[in-house]
Amino acid sequence: MKRILIGTALLATTFLAACGYSDFFASDDYPASSTVEPASFSHIPHEEKVLFIDPEADHQLGERDLLRLLYGRTLVSRSVNETSAVQYSYFSRDGLLAINPRPGRLVLGQWRIEDSKLCYDLSDDEFCSSLYRTAAKIDRTHLLYFARDESPIRPTVFLEDTQVGDTIPVERLPQTL
Fold first, then answer.
1. pLDDT, position 4
2. pTM for the whole thing?
């Protein structure tokens, strides 16, 4: 009897996951329900966002949070140091990475998650960054930022938005594509 119940539970779980009721690997049609979704912070001046960073109190997010945020999505981020530098990064489900750091430039590579860090393999450059969530809240929402693994923590980009699928604007791509 116990085996029949366990078998039925496994079958039901597999069926529900196949029908899209599992939120871990969400289909491209529906955004994953996640607690790590960054809100739009366009009303907050970029230079003020740095004031919310507290390396002692901010929380480093884990592998599952990274997968939910990145898997099959485009991240729109803004450099901590260069306020006008907006970057689009598409994280394909098969590990392909397309980064559009500025109009007319496209960098291709691979991405993977290793030890709760996002690792990039871009031609001759390989490095890892961690995703952090600020302890302080703005309008009941945390800011998300990536930081290089150094001591002390050095934030590199703030997340501005996440979009399902490859949504790098065509007008930002190199003309030769």
1. 59
2. 0.70
